[in-house]
Amino acid sequence: MGNSLPVSGSDKTIAALLVALLSCVDCVPLEGETLCGAEEPTTYSIVFTGKWSQTAFPKQYPLYRPPAQWSSLLGVAHNSDYVMWKASGYASNGMRELVEKGEPWMLMKEIEAAGEKMQSVYGIFSASPVVTGTGQTSTLFEVDPGHPLVSLAVRIVPSPDWFVGIENFNLCDKNGWKRHVSIDLFPYDAGTDSGFTFSAPNFATIPRDTITEITCSSPSHPANSFYYPKLKTLPPIARVTMAKLKRKKLGFLISQPNVTTTHNEVEDSVSETPLDCETSLWSSWGLCRGTCGNLGTKRRTRYILLQPANHGTPCPDLSEETHCEPDNCV
């Protein structure tokens, strides 16, 4: 048998501290996370504002069948163990149903299953659809110190699989709950459909691509409905505003002013995005017509693909003529 060494009092103290530190590993926030300084749950109002106007987004703006509008908003209060969607990640089947069809039920079931399995979800909230590109909708939701993150998604209607939303936004910091937050939203491609335009037919992307932000130059294709190569950035297509509701001493919520009602048209300053005229390629030259011994003329044409808007470059001439030697002179 080996001889055991005596353990001093200081060694015992160090060992006890190590055990205590190891037992608190789960209490330490992950890198990049901030401890929530709030002690109680709180309620927020949330207002979704569509800023999708023909002035800001004149290219292929949907005017009918259907006109520009937004699906219902679906959101969730959660902790870092749950991910509703993430840029550069892959859309779940539930997200695909929401962003392609506006159907929230499968995604709601995914959220509920994650909440039951990992206790990662505090609550689901929703707001009604917006029937115009520049309308508003609103609702209330609750968060608690253990679930201070908010994620949401709203489908762009019509579109192949485009949406706007926020991912893992933390409403709490070391000082407590944030009082007011306003976030500009930009379009995302879910990577589940390969259409380029608002009205593109359904064409599944197999295998799926990752979720990516749509910009004025990406996808870099002239047919893309958001392709504005002269812009540095797209104007915001929507906005989300969240405001913490005050509580009376007895715990009743005090209604917030300025929480807009559903479907109201929004009077807001909008960017005037210039849209240049786009034309087809020239046709082939026609026959050279004329009399023998003299120069004749031939003609070619092109047509307008996209009308200009907001002081964009006007359309050029759609036909031109040039001199030629007659082929079959008379």
UniProtKB/TrEMBL annotation:
GO annotation terms (biological process): cell adhesion
Main subcellular location: secreted
Signal peptide residues on this chain, from the entry's feature table: 1-27
Domain Spondin residue range list: 32-222
InterPro entries: Spondin/Thrombospondin_T1, Spondin_N, Spondin_N_sf, TSP1_rpt, TSP1_rpt_sf, TSP1_spondin_dom
Alphabetized GO MF terms: metal ion binding
Domain of life the protein comes from: Eukaryota
Keywords associated with the record: Cell adhesion, Disulfide bond, Extracellular matrix, Glycoprotein, Metal-binding, Secreted, Signal
Any one GO cellular component localisation term in the record: extracellular matrix
The protein, known as: Spondin-2
Species of origin: Pantherophis guttatus
